[in-house]
């Protein structure tokens, strides 16, 4: 009725106003609905996410407890326990209740470590007093005799961690073969002799685990480290065969290949003339903290991992490059050799 008294322009205006009001009402309603839906969805998604995180954390906790339980009371032999990574491995394995046999050349340093372990309160589980066996891995006879002593400590060995090692710095041109042999004796023949001497008892029990602390240089070779890289490549190859041959006997094999670790490794390295290198390399000084690497070793052993690279992105990529684009890898290494050689030549 009222519309009929209106001017057509006024009528059009009111109509437009009504339409706009209808729109905004319906739009308001739908945006409210959307907001409500958003809220419900985000709450549901949030609860789902929280649920997943909860289940995942519970799963991780259970796995961690199972893993620790597996190593509790296990007899773990650690070579090179006097220093660096071996010393830290002793601490983490002791804390989960492993029965340790600490090996090294220096009885005093082993005794000091055993005292520290006895005084540590970092464990919620029953810990055990470690035993000590001293021998030089470069002496095969002494190593085989030490294996018998190791077996007598607790009657058997569950885990053998071949950690002891020595590095090398020098050019191939300047290094007499005796120096290569010394590095191979400690890093390769010594651990092989110890492993072979302990294997029959593991096979007989159908239980055992051989762990090798290799290196990224067991997968790729870096210039001026020839003897070291060769010994670690040999370790990797030996362990890959060992894993295949012993699977049927219930013995597991783990190879860990760390990148640089902040230890005395470069200080203790053998130089081309056979002397102690005695320099803390910048790469080593900036390497990972040994305690962190030891925790990774513990996790890998508990999970019975087969092959683990513990390195940052660049060395990990270099390992792939060596396989996928060898020509490029060789060119990069040659350029690195030229750069590193220059200051020594000049
Ligand atoms: N540091 C790194 O950047 C790095 C990186 C990758 C892999 N790794 C590997 O990690 C392992 C541990 O080295 P680390 O870094 O902890 O160096 P470290 O501090 O120099 O410790 C080396 C250990 O090996 C022992 N050892 C050396 N020669 C031996 C021999 N002939 N007989 C028995 N024991 C011997 C040493 O005992 P003594 O006290 O008797 O000398 C010492 O306990 C080595 O296998 C090494 O190749 C190290």
Automatic annotation (TrEMBL):
Keywords: Membrane, NAD, NADP, Oxidoreductase, Transmembrane, Transmembrane helix. GO terms for biological process: lipid metabolic process. SMART domains: PKS_KR. GO terms for molecular function: oxidoreductase activity, acting on the CH-OH group of donors, NAD or NADP as acceptor. It holds the Pfam family adh_short. Residues 74-264 form the Ketoreductase domain. The chain crosses the membrane at residues 40-62. One of its GO terms (cellular component) is membrane. SUPFAM superfamilies: NAD(P)-binding Rossmann-fold domains. Belongs to the short-chain dehydrogenases/reductases (SDR) family. PANTHER family: DEHYDROGENASE/REDUCTASE SDR FAMILY MEMBER 7B, DEHYDROGENASE_REDUCTASE SDR FAMILY MEMBER 7B. Putative oxidoreductase. This is Dehydrogenase/reductase SDR family member 7B. It comes from Myotis myotis (Greater mouse-eared bat).
């Amino acid at each position: 009725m009222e519309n009929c008294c209106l001017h057509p322009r006024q009528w059009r205006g009111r109509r437009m106003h009504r339409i706009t009001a209808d729109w905004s009402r319906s739009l308001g309603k739908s945006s409210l609905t959307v907001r409500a839906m958003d809220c419900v969805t985000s709450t549901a998604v949030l609860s789902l996410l929280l649920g997943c995180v909860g289940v995942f954390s519970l799963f991780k906790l259970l796995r961690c407890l199972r893993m620790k339980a597996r190593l509790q009371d296990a007899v773990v032999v650690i070579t090179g326990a006097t220093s660096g990574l071996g010393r830290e491995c002793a601490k983490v394995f002791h804390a989960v209740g492993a029965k340790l046999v600490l090996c090294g050349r220096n009885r005093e340093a082993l005794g000091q470590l055993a005292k520290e372990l006895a005084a540590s309160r970092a464990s919620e589980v029953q810990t055990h007093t470690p035993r000590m066996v001293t021998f030089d891995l470069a002496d095969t006879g002494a190593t085989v005799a030490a294996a018998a002593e190791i077996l007598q400590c607790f009657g058997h060995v569950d885990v053998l961690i071949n950690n002891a090692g020595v590095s090398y710095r020098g050019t191939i041109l300047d290094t007499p073969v005796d120096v290569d042999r010394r590095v191979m004796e400690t890093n390769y023949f010594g651990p092989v002799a110890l492993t072979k001497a302990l294997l029959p008892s593991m096979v007989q029990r159908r239980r055992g685990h051989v762990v090798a602390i290799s290196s990224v240089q067991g997968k790729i070779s870096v210039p001026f480290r020839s003897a070291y890289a060769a010994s670690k490549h040999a370790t990797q190859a030996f362990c890959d065969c060992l894993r295949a041959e012993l699977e049927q006997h219930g013995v597991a094999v783990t190879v860990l290949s760390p990148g640089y670790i902040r230890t005395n490794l470069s200080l203790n390295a053998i130089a081309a003339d056979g002397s102690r290198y005695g320099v803390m390399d910048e790469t080593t000084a900036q390497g990972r903290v040994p305690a962190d690497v030891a925790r990774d070793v513990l996790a890998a052993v508990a999970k019975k991992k087969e092959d683990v690279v513990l390195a940052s992105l660049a060395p990990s990529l270099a390992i792939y490059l060596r396989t996928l684009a060898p020509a490029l890898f060789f060119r990069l290494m040659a350029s690195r050799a030229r750069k590193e050689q220059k200051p020594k030549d000049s």
